[in-house]
From TrEMBL:
It is found in: Cell membrane. The keyword Chloroplast does not apply. Its main location: membrane. GO terms for cellular component: external side of plasma membrane. One of its GO terms (biological process) is cell surface receptor signaling pathway. This is Ig-like domain-containing protein. It comes from the Eukaryota. It comes from Champsocephalus esox (pike icefish).
Amino acid sequence: MKGSTQRRVFGWVSIIWFTAAIAVSHGLELQTVSQATARCGENVTLTCNVSSSRLDIKYFSWHKNKSLCQYDSQHDDPKVKCEYIDEPLPQSLTLTLLNVMPSDQGKYLCKLRSRHGMTSNTTDVKVQDCLETSGYNRNESYAECWFNGVYSGGGSVRWSQGELNFTAPAFYQKEEMDHHGRYNILSQLDVQKGNLNQPYTCSLWMPSTSKALCSHELHMVKKLKGSSESMVTLQWICLIMEIIMVTCMT
Ligand SMILES: *[C@@H]1O[C@H](CO)[C@@H](O)[C@H](O)[C@H]1NC(C)=O
Ligand SMILES: *[C@@H]1O[C@H](CO)[C@@H](O)[C@H](O)[C@H]1NC(C)=O
Ligand SMILES: *[C@@H]1O[C@H](CO)[C@@H](O)[C@H](O)[C@H]1NC(C)=O
Ligand SMILES: *[C@@H]1O[C@H](CO)[C@@H](O)[C@H](O)[C@H]1NC(C)=O
Ligand SMILES: *[C@@H]1O[C@H](CO)[C@@H](O)[C@H](O)[C@H]1NC(C)=O
Ligand SMILES: *[C@@H]1O[C@H](CO)[C@@H](O)[C@H](O)[C@H]1NC(C)=O
């Protein structure tokens, strides 16, 4: 009994050892970047390189829940492009995600099977800095800013006037997911809180980058006693902090 267990263990150890030895001798490894970060709307390219001498490939694909791209077959998903390169080495499979959205986030798995065994590696895709449209409104009592198609998680609106920041009680926020994983924010500030002679600023704050992605400057309407309502002067500034795809519009 004991002898047969030992033999079995020995057998398994040998098999594992032998398999490992083959994989090592062929340097069978897939090289991927472990993480890729992109802005909303960008194209993201994921490369999977076979680090070995030429292999007789049986199966080579990029997956995320389902197969997105295979080395030997056409794919028809319009959201991705797929390219297999056999020559020159390294043999590689490249998946390009077009116009990425938060819903494209997650782990992408590159899988390879050949005569020498099976191996895989992953790339984790993160998407940030999403903003589709934005704008504002104001009257004598409220200043209001809205940002639609926003991501990343925890994105919020901050209000300030000069050095002064306004806090939660004067602040209203609504979140709504769209099918791309983005949401809309509307924020209202009760302007009794500040000084109507100075402009207010509302900013879309992104916790992932610790930056304001977009800001609007609101000049308030002051009601003058005894005079007709003064012409509204309205100005806006939209600051886009880096070279980006994001649009910030009124
Ligand atoms: C996955 O890719 C990384 C980076 O190229 C590499 O260091 C690692 O060894 C790979 N893992 C496997 C199992 O191939
Ligand atoms: C794959 O190989 C190409 C060509 O050698 C190289 O430019 C690229 O950086 C490699 N990619 C990875 C993820 O290792
Ligand atoms: C993404 O790729 C598509 C198709 O190749 C191209 O039309 C588009 O301009 C690219 N977008 C960006 C932001 O590079
Ligand atoms: C897709 O795969 C991820 C892990 O990569 C998992 O967390 C998620 O639940 C899967 N989604 C579906 C719909 O199977
Ligand atoms: C000012 O705007 C707020 C929010 O849009 C609205 O609820 C309020 O009725 C408006 N007040 C006046 C005086 O127009
Ligand atoms: C207001 O908030 C900004 C960050 O949004 C911060 O840098 C600044 O110090 C704050 N000012 C005051 C007076 O708290």
